[in-house]
Each structure stands twice: as structure tokens, then as C-alpha cells.
Amino acid sequence: MSEKGVVKFAVPKGSLQKTTAAFFEKAGIPLEGYGEGSRDYRPKIGIEGVEVKVLRPQEIPILVSRGHYDLGISGLDWYYESRCEKNVEDLAELGFGKVHIVLAVPDAWEDVNSADDLFRKYRSMASTRTLRIWTEYLNLADQFVFKYEGTEATIVSPYAGIHRERHSGIEIFHSFGATESKPPEDGDAIIDNTETGRTLRANGLKIIHKVLASSTAQLLANRRSLLDRDKAERIEFIRAACQKAAGTSTERRRTSYGHLDW
Amino acid sequence: METFDAPRGTRDFLPDQMAVRNHVERVVRDTFESFGYQQVQTPTFEQYELLAARSGEEIKESMFTFASDAGRYALRPELTSPVCRIVASGKLKDHPKPYKLYYYGPCFRYCRPQEGRYREFFQAGIELLGSSDPLADAETIAVADKVLKNLAIGEYRLKVGNVGIFRRLLDEQAPENPLQREEWEARVLHDLDRLMGITAKCRMLAGHATLSDDDKEYLAREANYLAALQEEIKYEGPAKLARSAQRTDQELAELVSNLPEIGKTTIGAAWTEHGLLSQESASLILQVAQTRGSVAQVRETATKLLVGTTGERALLELWDVCSWLDALGVTDYEVVLGTVRNLDFYTGTVFEIDSPHLGTHRQLCGGGRYDTLVEDFGGPKTPATGLAFSFDRLVQVFKAGQATVDATAVDVFVCADEVEARPRAVQVAEQLRKEKFRATVDLMNRSLEQQIEYARQTLKAAFAAVVRPADLQAQQCKLIHLASGKEETVPLASLAQEISRIRSN
Q: How confident is the model over B209-259, as pLDDT tens digits?
């Protein structure tokens, strides 16, 4: 058991690592032993009562949700994918590590230029073949299909708890990497993250829909931890520093055709 | 048992809050109706295609959508499209024009809830369809102004402009290829937004003796942004700015007066360098962007700037609207020439009202002319103008002011002393209700002392009427004015009269 009031803070390993390190440097609370090339999994932060651990961003929302960590940094994509909104508060948008979660299909399909096109195409030949979508984001993909088609797709995975057979013309395949390489022979479409779309294009794919636009790094907190006075104070200190370092968004406010700004 | 809270980003409004909200709603409705508007109500959800028709990717993703039967639907994110759908459908074709329609109701957006931003929020607004008269634009602005005056909201800023000025100036310069155009517009509009932000902020700070930490940070950030832009285009010249992690207070104070000019020069140079705009048009557009002030202050400069350009006609429209505003008694506003507010939607006059009492999301009201929407929805060509209030923010600003709202539920609490007096107490309460008083009786078996205490402390009722066993024969009761404690015995026949008499004193 950790000491009372100690805040356990999970920071991401991998692609978000370098930018997270730079961000905390800028926020005035540098993480010692976390920068590029570091193999230390337990970096130091200069705040009393805060312990830091390096974990994969995919693991962080779920660990924060279950209370093993009080605070964490991960992308909005994995926050949503982990379906932990009920237990986890997204305290601050940090602005870096921006990716889009997109639906992409082979470039050669001239008749498919939107999600509607794709589903329509497969609906019309439902009796002869299924629509195979590869992804690491099983929940986002599942929700996406449900939103468009109103039906549950079959989920194909080696893990019993994840695998789900449905009488459905749509199959979501559990991808373990290099998702962009599956189509056209092993899959019809993918749902994957992309920064610029370059990798997708290089693999003969085109983006037809944004499943989750502009996912950036978020500061996440366990809601229960926010009720603990000692923890809340430390969390607030980190949140305030992050908010300040994040500044205001430089993007133009997008507006709808309504009278009030969106 | 698990207990449930309201879903994320939604709120429960309790009786005290509802008293205030209902009051604000009533004032808003009365004001709309005083200008001859009539209410319409549309469904909470619409066909997804209607709401998605003209919105960008991000907006489509921010709608609550669901599939049912064979259709896709979305909870409405705003109410202008549903109203225009009605008009486009021809359901109003037997009504005389112009249509003056108002609405009030919940709207939904799938967003990250934060202060002042909810997933369920309320909008109240008007749409005036069928008139292209500049007086229609001015009257719409006057309605917004009147709502705030009627709510005794003193502090707000009204900005009036015309998107036609920029729309036409930019149209002339934009690339023809639609994809390039999108990127080009996003870039130019972002820079314009930024420059106008800097100009507005510096103008505000110019009057301040000292700068707050937030202001310093803002200045440093914007200065570094411009310095980075200068580095990128290898700018050398009088507006040259060095990137710096630490600026002294002296340097920051100088930025307050220099930054708008530096911004203008830098952004203009970057546009020319990147081949977005010719030097001449860049300079014109940037000068327009920085022109703001009272009509008297900007009239001459603006006219000189735009004479002979494609923006001139829109400017003349703007002056027309301004003179009608004068006639309508709306005088306290700022003309913002280079407004780019919602360029994809508006076609002419636009206005916006901000309140200093709101945090990051300050927009209280927005509105303007949108002459193409009804046609886009398959209807006849219909000039249109309108506005919407963020009702939640309106309530917030109202609460920050002086006005108070009666939140009590009851005027007269009718107490029964002893059980045999209860039937009479019920009759007395019913008699008072007929006279339009709000009256209740005890339902919790309280003693007489407890009943009076409950009426005074909890209900904060103005009066208690006590029926005692001895009063049953005499057809009378004891009336207590709870604030003063004054008591008197009153015949039942004149009870209502007596209460009215004390009240009006």
C-alpha cells in the first residue's frame, strides 16, 4: 500500500514520451530520467508526494480507472477506447501528440468516398461476402459500426473474452500492428490512427472518414482521487501547471451554421 | 443500491434554480413577443442529414447521433436549421411575410464538458425570414439589446460588422481549386483571427497601469509566435522581433503598443512570402481587420479604405444598419469591420454580444443575416436574419447582477390547530387558491407551533392563516403576517381582501 495522500502518476512510453517530457519541462515540473532514450521506468518529479511510473499509453486510462493510479497521461483515443469516462475525469487537454482515428479503404475504390458509401457497398452484396475491418481500436470500431448500421458486428480475436460471433455482414478483426498492411487481400477497411495520412497513402489507402478527429494527449484523473483532499491538492498543482503550459488552442474555432459559436 | 447521477455534461435544475431560469425565460419571451414574434416548437431530434448538410467534420462528430428503423438521427445542436426546415417545407406558405418566429429549448452536443460548456444546453432565439431590409438586421440587434436591458444586465459588449466585406475581398484572391481554397482560407482566417485577437487585447491593455501574469503570458506567447513566423520567412526589417524565453516588464509594456503593428507587418510579409496574397491585397485586408471602434471613429477611415473595392457595397449596408440602430435607440456598440465570424453561414450583417462575467466562453448572443440557408434546404430563395442567446449563460450573467427573483412556493400556509380544524383548513386553502393565491396545508402531522415555524422558516411564506376549533362556528381565522409577526382575527369572507390589503401596504 502506498503512503496516504501519495499521488501515483502514470506517464506514457513510446511515441508520446518525447513530447510529454518536453511539455513537463515547459510546465516547470521536469521529469528526471524520462527523456528520449531513457530506460528508466520510474522517473523522478520534483513534487513531494508524487510517484511517477512509465507505462504504455494503452494501459494508462484503465489503470487510472481502476484506481491503481490517481493521475495519468494518455491520448483521447485510448481514453475513449477504454470506456472509462464514468471513473476518469479528463482534467486538461495538453495539445500535443495529435492524431486522427480514421477509417481508410484502398485508394483504388473510386466508388467509396465516405462511410455511407462503404456500408452501402457491402449491404448490397451482404449475401456473398462480409466487410472486414481491421483495427487495434476494437471499442471505437464497434461503436462506430453500431452508430452507422445499428447492428453489432462480429469481432474476430484470439482472446475468448473479446471474440464475439454475431450474425452480421461486418467483421471487426483484432489487429496486432501494421494495420495499414492488411488491405486489400486480408481486409477491406481499417480504423487506425494517423498523424498526416502519409503512411496510409504509402500503403495504397485513402481516408474516407474521421472516426475520432484530433485526439491529443490528456491529463486524466481518477474521480475518487479527486475527492481525497491531500491528493486533490497535488493533482490540482499539476493540472494548473499543465493548463498553463498548454496555453490556449491556436486552432480557429469551428462553427456550425447556428448563430452561436460551437 | 447504486445511486445514479445525471449523465456527464448534463444538469438537474432544482426549484431555486428553476425560479431564476423561469424568470429569465419569461423576460426573454415577453421581449421577443413585444416585437411581434411567435413561438414555434420543433422536435428534439432531426434527420442526421439535415443537421450535417452544411457542417464540417468536427461538427458532425460533435453531434449525438443514433440509428432507428432505417434512418439516422441526431439530437439538434441548434435551432436555426429546424426553423429553416419548416420554412423550406412550405408549411408556412399561407402566412404573410415576413415570418417572425422564436424558439426556446434544449440543444445537444457531444463535447468535453467544461466550465460553461454542457452536453445539454439551452438556446432561445428568433428568426426573421422574408425581409432583406437593413431595418430587419437592425431590429434583430435591437431585440437582443432589449432582452439584456429588460433583464437589467448592465455590462455587455455589442459588436456589429458585416461578413460581406471580407467575403468579397477574399473571394477575389482565393485559389479556384476547392481543396487548395479550403487550406488557403483556413490559413488566412486563422491569421486574421489571431491578429484581431492581438489588436483587441492590446487595445484593452493600453489603459492598464500594470499587467497581470496572464496578460504577460499572453503577450509573450503571441510575440514568440510572431517571432517564429518571422524566422520562418527570414524576415528582416523594422518590425523584427527576437524570440525570447524571458521578457522584462519593460519589454512587455512596449509590446502592448507595438504588437498589433508588428503582427500586421509580419503576417502581411508571411502571406506575400508564401504566395497567399499579393502585397497590395494583404495590406488592404490587414488594415480592414484592424479597423474597429464607434461609428464616428471608423466611418471616415473605413470608407476611404474600401472605396472602389468589392467590399464597398457591404460597407454601405453596414452604415445603413447603423443608422437604423440609431433610430432604434441602440447606441452603445462597436463596429468591427473585419469580422470573420462564421463565414460559412452568414452572408451579411453579423453581431455578437459578450459578457465580462463569463469565463473563457464569453459569447452571450450571436446573430446575423444568412440569405442562403432556406434555399440550401430545398426551399424558395428567402432572405433571413436571426439571433440566438445562450440561455444558460444569460442566466449566469443575470445572477451576477443585482436583481432578485422570488423563489418561494407559497403565499399563505393554512395551519390547523387540532385535528377537527383540518377540514376547514383545507377549505380555506381552496378558497384562497380561487383568489389566485398560492396556498397549502400541513401534510406531515405537525403541531401548530411546528406548522407556523415551517411556514416562516422553511417555506418563507408571507402569511400563515390559523384555523382554531373555536373559529369553526365563528367563520373566522387568525391571520399572521410572518415577517412582522403581527396577528389579527379575520372573518373568512374577507380573508383574501385582508391579505391583499396588507401586501399592498
A: 788 887 888 888 889 889 888 988 888 888 888 777 778 888 888 889 899
Going B53 to B55 to B56 to B57, the CA torsion angle's sign is negative
Q: Residue B10: its chain A contacts at CB < 8 A? A: none
In Å, how far is B387's CA from the nearest CA of chain A?
A: 6
Three cell numbers at B270? 508571411
**Residue B76 to residue B64: CA distance in whole angstroms:** 8
* B90 neighbors B108 (Cβ within 8 angstroms): no
- If we measure between CA atoms, which residue out of B384, B311, B390 comes closest to residue B104? B390
List strands edge to edge, sheet with B463-467: B439-441, B412-416, B463-467, B476-481, B486-491
Q: ipTM beyond 0.90? A: no
Q: How far apart are the C-alpha atoms of B239 and B229, rounded to whole Å?
A: 12
Distance from CA of A77 to the nearest CA of B (A): 13
- The pTM for the full model equals 0.71
Q: What angle do CA B142, B145, B148 make, to 5 degrees?
A: 150
Chain B residues close to A261, C-beta within 8 Å: 341-342, 363, 366
SS (H, E, C) A28-66: CCCEECCCCCCCCCCCEECCCCEEEEEECCCCHHHHHHC
Interface of B with A in 108-167 (CB under 8 A): 109, 112, 123, 125
Provide CB contacts within 8 A for A202, sequence distance 6+.
none
Contact B62 A212 (CB under 8 A): no
Q: How long, in residues, is chain A?
A: 262
